[in-house]
Structures are given as structure tokens and as C-alpha cells.
Amino acid sequence: MTATILIATDIFGHTPEVQALARDLTNGRDVRARVVSPYGSHNGGERPRFSSEVEAYAAFSARIGLERYTQMVAEALAEHRPALAVGFSVGATALWVALAAPPKPFTGSAVLYYGSRIRDHLDLRPAGDVRLVFAEQEASFAPAELVATLQARGMAAELRQGKAHGFMNRLSQGWDATAYAAELERLRGLLAPAGHGWLSRPDSGSDSTRR
Q1: Among candidates 81, 89, 88, 73, which has minimal Cα distance to 32?
Q2: What pTM was computed for the model?
Q3: Which of 85, 138, 180, 191 has its CA 20 to 30 A from that of 169?
Q4: CATH code of the domain covering residue 86
Q5: Residue 186 sits in which domain range?
Q6: 40-82: per-residue pLDDT in tens?
Q7: DSSP per-residue codes, 149-194
Q8: Does residue 206 sit within a domain?
């Protein structure tokens, strides 16, 4: 049976860069990728191009918002029942909230990258095997403190030292090719038998391990 990866994008939406990530994850494997974007699905949905993160954030805030995007992500989870769900920035926060909503049918793995607004929803307990990866550098909060709080609550949270928000997105100022390659291998490892391959200390740098 073909496994499914669900990718919840950041505020840039379903860009060619996200499509490249989907190909990197599925290449050579019996795996299919499904992308959910604030601006439409991978099946012919709108794919706007923004000149900057400021422009993308303004569009997301005016046209969608977190509540609506979370609903879209929840619907995609129910439709595709992925073995692996991956979220970036606002997509990570939307996944965090959606995975905690009843009836919590999700039993796969989820990796949430730099979901900064997760800090506003710490009372939630998502379903499935959820792993959180934060960048050390954030403008609006202290990621190390959030990671420590999540770990204290029993969550598998990690900090990428020296990395900035958006290190997985080529369109972001925080893009880091070395970190991207290391995380890609870890994600592919989650699709191996028994989920082997998720290393606690990848080459991209981490100062915390899973608990």
C-alpha cells in the first residue's frame, strides 16, 4: 500500500520550492505527497508568488488566517490519512492545533518545523508521534525556552543551533542548504520500517534530544 506524506506549507504557499521538497521526499519510494496550502490545494489551487516574507504574511493574514488554515489542514488529514505529516511555520502551528482536535484519528508521525505560534496553544496535546524542530533564531520569542517547556510536558522538541526561522524554505532569508539536506534524510527515515532514521543529533546541529 502506498504511503502518503502530507505537507502543510508556510505563508508562501504551494511554491515550486515546496514541490521540489515533495519530490525529494518521495523520490525512489512507494510514497506520494499531498500538499495543503493556505491558498489552495496541489490539485490546481492558486499558487501566488510573493516578493518577500512581509508581502506573504500580509496576504495570509488578510485572506486566510490561522483558524481557516487549521480547518483546511484538518480536512486534508481526514481525507488523506498520511503516514507522515510535515508542517512549516504557520503550517506547523495549524498541524499542531488540528492534530489535537477531536476525534484525533491520526496515528502516524508528524514533524513540525519552527511553528512559532505553537507557544499560544501549549494546552493542546496532539495525536500521533509528534516531533517539533525549532530554529535557534526567532525575532519574537525565545525558542530555547519554548523547547524546554515542551520537553517538560513530554513532547519531543529540539532546537537547531545557529539556524534561523525558515531554514527549510529556499524563499526564506533563513534558508540553510546543509540543514535542509540533514532534515530531509531524517524525514525519509521516518518512512522506513519502524520509523528508523530519525537521529537525535543531525549534522544541522541540535542541543536537545527526544524524551
Answers
A1: 81
A2: 0.88
A3: 191
A4: 3.40.50.1820
A5: 3-195
A6: 754 444 567 787 778 888 888 888 899 999 999 999 999 999 9
A7: HHHHTT-EEEEEEEEETTTT-TTSTT--HHHHHHHHHHHHHHTSGG
A8: no
